[in-house]
Amino acid sequence: MSDSYRRKTAALRLCFHLIVIIEVGAETHYHPTLTVSVPHMSYICPEGANVTMQCVAAGTTRYAGDQVRFGWLFTAHQDQRCQDDTRPRIPHSKNHSHAHAEGVHYQSTRGVSWITLVNVAHADQGRYCCVALDIHREAHRATVEQKPHNHVLLTVTPRRPGNTNCTVIDHKPPEGSVAAGLATAGCIMGILSLPLILLLVYKQRQTAQSNRRAHELVRMDSEAQGHENPVFLGGSPQNKTRTVSQIMTRQSSETGRHLLSEPNTPLSPPVHGDVFFPSQGKAPTR
Fold first, then answer.
1. Among 9, 11, 147, 156, whose Cα sits 20 to 30 Å from the Cα of 169?
2. Across 101-129, average pLDDT
3. What pLDDT, on the 0 to 100 scale, is given for residue 235?
4. Rounded distance, CA 157 to CA 279, Å?
5. Contacts of 165 (CB under 8 A, 6+ apart)
6. Smallest Cα–Cα separation from 41: which of 164, 157, 179, 155?
7. What are phi and psi of 200, to 5 degrees?
8. How much is the pTM?
9. Whole-angstrom Cα distance, residue 269 to residue 279?
10. Using CB atoms within 10 A of its CB, is residue 208 exposed (0-12), middle (13-18) or buried (19+)?
C-alpha cells in the first residue's frame, strides 16, 4: 500500500467523521420531526410603527391527532434566550396565562403564527421567541411531546415623521447546515488538492536527489582532475621558479625546429669570440 493511498484514505475518513459529528449536533439542536422557522430573522421599526412578526411550524407531530399550539415569549436582551414566564408587554410580576397585554394581538392558523405589536416603543426592542407545542391528549390528560422554538429580533429606532415602515432582514440558513456545508466543501477541496500536493512533494524530492547527484559528480571529477585544475584543490596556481643554470641551458624545441640559441642557425651569434658584439679592431692612427 503506497503512502499516497494511505493519505487519501485517512483524509476521507476524517471528512466522514467530521460531517457525521456536525449532523448529529444539528439534529440535537433541531428536532427531527417538528421544527419552527421564521421567514425574517430581524425587524427594524421606527417608534410608533406597527409590526407583525411571523413563525411557521413544519414536520409532523409525535402521535396522530396531536394538536399544535403556539406561544410567544419575550426578553429585552437580544443575545439571551427567552424564559418560559416572560410574555410581550406584560411585566414579569404579572406574567401569567390570563394576563392581557395592551396593543398585542395573536393569530394562528394551519401551522402559522403571527404576533402584532401596535405603536411600538423603545421598550418593545428585544428578542421574541416563537414556541410550537405538540400537545398529546390521552385519558383526560395533556402532555407536551415536542417543544421546538425559534426567534426573531426587533430593533426600534427613533421616530421619523412620515415614515412608519419596518425593514426586515431575511432568514439565514441554520448554523448546523452552514457548518456542514463548509466542512463538506473543505473536505472536497482537500481531497481534490491532495494529488497536487503529492506531486509537488515528489518534484521537490526529485530536485533534491538531482542536486545531490550533480554535487557528487562534480566532486568525483575534481578528485580525478584536480592536479590539472588547482581550483578543485582549494589552492591557486603557483609559478614555477627556475635557476640561472636552467635558464642558460639550451632547451629543445617542441616543434623540432632549432632554437636561436643553437649554433649554425640564422642570426645565431658566432661560436667563438664575443657573444653579442663583434670584436673591434684597433682604431687607425693619424
1. 147
2. 94
3. 52
4. 130
5. 49
6. 155
7. -65, -40
8. 0.50
9. 12
10. exposed
